[in-house]
Each structure stands twice: as structure tokens, then as C-alpha cells.
């Protein structure tokens, strides 16, 4: 039972709450589907939307069609008395004159003591309504004066204004108000008259034949003289169609029916304003305490088609005018379609952009792949060339060492007066020097030459190399060296940097056969050192410039170059993590720009340049380790001639045994690197571990171990490249022997 009771209570509670809600009756003068009335009702409903739907009662008197029909009005009294005896309202909203007149006439019978809020009133003045008890509201105001002023503004040349009304009590009430205003606007040349007695046919014909200088102002038409109902929806559009002049009105709902415009009252806003007053009454404010609003709000409103039809420019309209019916843009008519199409276009655009970016990435990847393939091809070329160079260099340099060595030794035995033989022997030595240089370039290009990188001040190296470079060019070439004031230190093998400069200077010399200017300059930035070599020579075409770094490519005649100079340069620069650029055009010279990473460390001492060393005499036992018998013979002959005693070994194993046997007498070891059984690198390490103070000189024409140069420098071991001259060999061995005083002392001759 408790559950049933709770359920019943729950179901009944909303109904009880609704029962406590106030009731509002809206009594309309006219009928539903009448535009003015529908807009009024909509405004009231929106403002009172908080009420339960069944507590807002809306009645329609249909007074426009049942004009001044007393029998009909009596029936309404009986019907409302019966109905609202059961549902008495707490407040009544009346719209337009007929409803208010009906309520005031039958208030005592139907709705005693119920407050009334009116709207849309034209037939009575504020002075007449203010004394009425328990009543307040909004007068419509019938803005005749405002519309006549508007017509005067827009049609200054008009000769007549015709006010349209009818003979009903409502119509005549409007006419009476209008006649009070007319004298203020009539003047010479402008006559204002009222048409209120006509049939619909007569009105149609009279409007169609009106003078061009006339303007119409519609007050209100409910029925014609014959009692025919005037429908604004049915009869107004044909009337405005035949009118050769504008027709203005005061009610906003008539826009779109052919009316040009006017100072208009919006029925929706009018109804909403009345409902706001009704809410105040429902909240407890007495109706008598709420002042009457003496006029509704009238705003200038116009129909775009009417303005266009009669050539009324919009810039002549009053400020704040509203123009309705303006042709909308395609976007306004099809906003959703435009947004949908735009979304599709944007999506397609994004898709195209995405695809384009993919294509760009693919093309970039293809270019990168092509570059990588080119780098791989070049690396493979270098590898093949390196293997070839390495395979040839060892034996080739041994041959050159033997040839140049025996030629040098033979020249010592040539009689002083035998100039021909001496010249022939010197030519042999020059040929071996050129062959050795070609081998060095080949090994540098293939990156098979051992290097000893150190911090080098490019300024100091350039100044130190100036005299040597001067000898490479003819007297017709002006050589200018421009070091920078700031330290310009880089990490590189100084010998290879000298080789870069020498090759570039030789190329510049060959490009200026008739002389010119050769400038070597150094510039330093925060991150790089720029070495620039510029000449005023013949320059290069783009075709030649594109191939200058290719190995064995040359534009020189046969015998003037092997095409390895620039290929060697780029290999050296890239090994030092630098870049090289060239700027050249025919007839405008050539400029090479080499950029190397700058370091901020103290530079190492530069090695002395090779020079002809006079024969030095020495003494003591020297162990020569060399697998090539001809090179051993050259070394033995050179050292023996200079006073040294020589032991020979053809591999590292034999050398270790001889060093053990003659440790006390041994003053120096001269060893090759590439040998069978036990190579020179391993031999050096074993000798150092067993004989740490024993001077060692390493000789080689090719070293396949790039770390050997660094290790030799760390162990303070001297190195001489093949091919070498006997005097150069004796000099470096003597320096090594003298570097260890304890062994050098016993090595000196008595």
C-alpha cells in the first residue's frame, strides 16, 4: 500500500504543481493565420514559455471578418462566460482595438477584477485609457506623422499623398487620428487626402490610374463598402502590382506583399513587450502601478524589391533602416553546400599537398640515392684504384729507389770532366723523382698514404712555403700572399696541405702562360678557415669545371700532367673534413676556395722542407731490414760509403735475432714496412719492447695501415719515403743515431 501511495503521489505531484501556475488569457481581435495576429501570439508565447501550455488560453474574435456584428458578439459573451467560469484567468492580454473594446464593455460580467494588459491600440488615446482601473498596456501609436515625414524625405517631388482606410469603426478611428496630423505636412504643391469609401474593384482601378506624383500610405483596410472582406494576403499583392507609385504602410508583417516600406511596428516585438508587462502583473505589481506605454517602437523598414522597382537609393534611407528581401548571395542560399564543397576541396587540396610532398620526398630520395650511388661508385673507384696503387706502389717505389740510388752512387764515381755522363745520370734521377711524385699523388687520391695530422697554422705554413711556391711559377707571374691577422689553425697533415697548395699553384701557373697575378689568401671565421687561391688565367668552361675533380681528367697536353692533381686535392680536403669550391669562367680566371674546420689549439712546429743534404760521415753498426735485395744494396752502399758498418736481414724474424746478437754494438735499425713472415710494423713494436733506446728509421713506398704514421710519431720513430737518395738516407740515419747520446757516443769515429 505504501508503494502504491508513493506512486500515486509521484504521478499527481506535477499536476498539483501545474494547478498552482497562473492562467493567462490572450484575447485577439482578429483570426488565426492573419499575419499580424500570428506574430503577436508568437511573441507572447515566447515570453510566457515558462508557463504550462494548458495555462495559456488563446482566443480569436475574428473581428476583421465579423465587423460590427452585435449578434456574433453576444454569442462570444455567452461562450467566454461559460468557459472562463471554470478557468478564470489571472491576467488578460488583449490585442488590438476590438478585443479591448469588447473587454471594457463586458468586463463586469465576464472578468471582474481581472487585470488587463492591452497592445495594438489605435482607436483610443492614452488620456482615455489611463483612468480605466486595473488596466495598463502599450498603445500602438499609429505612426502617421513618422510615415508622412519618411515619404517627404524619400519623395520630395511628390504632389499628393493618399491615405487608404475603410468605413469600419476601426478604420474611422485611424482616419480620425490621421486627420489630426495631416495639417502639419500639407503645403503648397503637396495635397494629402483620404480614400475610405470604395469597393475592392473601384480601389483597384483608382490605384492603377493614379497620377505619377502620388504616394500611398496604407492605414488599414478591413472591408470595402459592399462588406467584402479585405485579405492582405489575397488582395494586397494585386493592388501593389498595378500601382505605378509606391505604397507605404505601418505594419511590418506587410513587407513582402508589395509594400515599399515605412516606419513600421513589428507585431512580434509588440506582443513580447505586452507579455513582459503581464509577467510583472503576475509577479504582484498592480496593473494601475504600471504606466502606459504611449507608443510602440516604429523602425524604418523597407522591401528591397520595392526600393529597386521605384529607384529609391539606399543611401537616402534613414540611419538604422532595415532592408528585407535583399537577394542573398549564393553562399547565403547554399551555406551548407558551400561548406561541404569547401571541405571536399580542402580535403582534396590537403590530399594533393600530401601527395605532392610525397612526390617531393620521393624525388629528394631519388636525388639522395643518386648521390649515394655516385658516392658509392666513387668509393668503389677509390677502392679499386687504391688496391691498384697499393699493389703497384710498393714494388714500383722499390724499383725507383734502386734506380735513383744507383744513379746517385754512380754519379759520385764519374770523372769531373765527363759532363755528358753526369747529365745523363741527373736525368735518370729527375725521371725517378717525377715517377715518385706520380705515385704519391695516386696514393693520396686513393687515400692509401699514411698521414700525420697535427694542428697547423695556415698563415705560418703559407709564409714558410712562399719561397718554394715562388720557384714553381715563372717571373711573369706576380705571386701575392695575404695571410690573416688572426690565428687560422686547422687539423691536417702539413705535408698534404703543402701538396694541395703546390698543385693549385702549378695549375694556376699553367693557366697563365703569358703571366698574370696569383693570389693566395687566408681568412678566418668563427668556425672555418678559408684558403683562397685565385689566378687571372684563361678560366674554364662549365663543362670542364664539372669534371676537374675526376681522376685522370686533364686539359693539358700529353706529358704536362696525369690528371691526378685536383683529384688528389679533393681527397686530401675531404679527409680533413673540409670542402672545396671553384668559381671560373672563360677569360675571367679561376678561384679555388678551401674551407677547413677551425680549431683553437696551439699549432705544432712545422717540419723543415726537404733539401739536398751534404754527405755526412758516421760510424757504428746499422741493421738494414729489407726484403728487396736491390734496395738493400743501395742502403748498404750509401751507409758504408758514409762510414757505417751494415748488417742485412730480409725479414723481421731474422732482424730480431741479429738485434739480439749485436745489441751492445747496434746503433740503429733501418727497416722496411711491407715484408714477408714478419712485417715492419710488428718488428718495430718488438724492438721497442726489448730495446727501448734503440733508434729506428722506417722506410716505405706504401703503407696499408693508416694508423702507422700516428704510431711512429708516438714512438718518436723517423720515417723516410721511397724512393730516396743515398744522401737523404744517410742524413736521417745519422739524425736517429745522434738522437740517443749513449749509443751515438760510441758511434762516432775515433
TrEMBL record:
CDD domains, sorted: HisKA, REC
Family annotation (SMART domains): HATPase_c (SM00387), HisKA (SM00388), REC (SM00448)
Every Histidine kinase domain range: 391-600
Protein name: histidine kinase
Coiled coil: 355-382
InterPro entries per the UniProt record, alphabetical: CheY-like_superfamily (IPR011006), HATPase_C_sf (IPR036890), HATPase_dom (IPR003594), His_kinase_dom (IPR005467), HisK_dim/P_dom (IPR003661), HisK_dim/P_sf (IPR036097), Sig_transdc_His_kin-like_C (IPR004358), Sig_transdc_resp-reg_receiver (IPR001789)
Annotated transmembrane regions: 337-359
UniProt cross-references to Pfam families, sorted A to Z: HATPase_c (PF02518), HisKA (PF00512), Response_reg (PF00072)
Catalytic activity: ATP + protein L-histidine = ADP + protein N-phospho-L-histidine
4-aspartylphosphate modification, residue list: 672
Domain Response regulatory: 621-737
Domain of life: Bacteria
MF term (GO), any: phosphorelay sensor kinase activity
PROSITE patterns: HIS_KIN (PS50109), RESPONSE_REGULATORY (PS50110)
EC number: 2.7.13.3
Record keywords: Coiled coil, Membrane, Phosphoprotein, Transmembrane, Transmembrane helix
Organism: Enhygromyxa salina
